[in-house]
């Protein structure tokens, strides 16, 4: 049984302990987006509200099979952008027209979940996309029919963490945002409320 002094010391230590870090966009989703989506779609249960499930980042380096330096640049670019070690993607079958043999390295990818996913999409929306030249909004037609959204970033230099001077090769980046939404309308509403700048 703890004494009154021990209990007071424990309470003081807990009050002085740093709060658990939560990404800004995750807090915004829980406090602002969830109630608005519940009202918009007439949902009674918070668990039924569409949410982000994962984000998959992919760089294709077709000529990487012939030059290990090209593939290494792709891996380094993706590591800088995601903060996570990419996995090498390999050809599933041989295609003579593309000089591909089964098992050849053709690119790299990363899957982001939980806090890293929210941190990435926050940087994408608030830092990277506004730096794209002549940007006029994202196409609202790039949903897959079940609420998942894909977009391409043609220039990785829009991410400030990428040092283009140290890279010999520059790659485009494919971003796929996977949600728990059942329809494209739900996915669109979710991403719009999170701040995704869709064309009107």
Topology:
Layout (H helix, E strand, L loop, with lengths): L3 H13 L7 H18 L10 E9 L7 H15 L4 E4 L14 E8 L1 H15 L20 E5 L19 E7 L4 H11 L6
Antiparallel strand pairs: 1-3, 1-5, 2-3, 4-5
Helix pairs in contact: 2-5
Write up this protein.
The structure is a single chain. With about 200 residues, the protein is of the alpha+beta class. It has a single domain (about 50-195), classed as 50s Ribosomal Protein L5, Chain: A (2-Layer Sandwich). The chain has helices spanning about 5-15, 25-40, 70-80, 115-130, 185-195; strands at about 50-60, 85-90, 105-110, 150-155, 175-180. It has a 5-stranded antiparallel β-sheet with strand order 2-3-1-5-4. The protein is globular, with a radius of gyration of 21 Å. The N and C termini lie far apart (about 65 Å). The mean pLDDT is about 80.
């Amino acid at each position: 049984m703890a004494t009154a002094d021990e209990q007071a010391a424990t309470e003081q230590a807990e009050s002085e302990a740093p709060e658990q870090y939560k990404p800004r966009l995750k807090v915004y989703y829980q406090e602002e987006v969830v109630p608005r989506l519940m009202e918009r779609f007439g949902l009674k249960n918070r668990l039924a509200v569409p949410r982000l499930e994962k984000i998959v980042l992919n760089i294709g380096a077709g000529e990487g099979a012939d030059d290990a330096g090209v593939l290494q640049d792709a891996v380094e670019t993706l590591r800088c952008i995601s903060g996570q070690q990419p996995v090498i993607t390999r050809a599933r079958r041989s295609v003579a027209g593309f000089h591909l043999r089964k098992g050849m390295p053709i690119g790299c990818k990363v899957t982001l979940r939980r806090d890293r996913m929210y941190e990435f999409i926050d940087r994408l929306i608030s830092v990277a996309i506004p730096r794209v030249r002549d940007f006029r909004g994202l196409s609202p037609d790039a949903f897959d029919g079940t609420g998942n959204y894909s977009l391409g970033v043609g220039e990785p230099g829009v991410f400030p963490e990428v040092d283009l001077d140290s890279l010999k090769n520059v790659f485009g980046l494919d971003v796929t945002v996977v949600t728990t939404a059942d329809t494209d309308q739900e996915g669109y509403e979710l991403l719009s409320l999170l701040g995704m700048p869709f064309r009107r």
